[in-house]
Amino acid sequence: MLSGVRGRVVSRDGTEIAYERYGDGRAVVLVDGADGGGRALAGLLARRFSVVTYERRGPGPVEREIEDLAAVLEAAGPGAAVHGTETGGALALAGAAAGLPVGAVSVYEPEPLADGLVAAVHARVLVVDGGASPAATRHAARALTAALPRARHRTLTGQTHEVAPHVLAPVLEEFLEGPL
Hints:
Blueprint (H helix, E strand, L loop, with lengths): L4 E6 L5 E7 L4 E5 L7 H7 L4 E5 L7 H15 L4 E5 L1 H11 L6 E5 L15 E7 L4 H13 L3 E6 L8 H12 L4
Parallel strand pairs: 3-4, 3-5, 5-6, 6-7, 7-8
Antiparallel strand pairs: 1-2, 2-4
């Protein structure tokens, strides 16, 4: 059973954000998508990294979520990487575009970003999709990779939008262990 150190940070607007930290090593903040299913991935990555998960707010302005991510990144420590899935991937990229101090960003099948944000992402980025996901999703991942200044792309054979954590974790480990 995965157990971590719990903490709280305060976002810019005064909202308390709960987080948990697992493992030791270079910090990685996980930004869940709508399903919030990052706990299994956190457990796998915590063997090599200090993994920080947090409770995202409900629907609202992306600016508030970026402020929340900024507070969690400060708690995670300098140079923390960020991984996001689905809407969490879009938030991770939006935060990097807004200038948050991220070491690297990885995303799995992120929601589309607003025009103009992609070129502002200067972090090293890994864009991942599932080989069994719809063709439009795979095409969008490749287009995003091509538009980002410092990105590379990976397709996970046999995976769908519901990626298996044990398949994704080694790909993220390899990317995150690279130079920032």
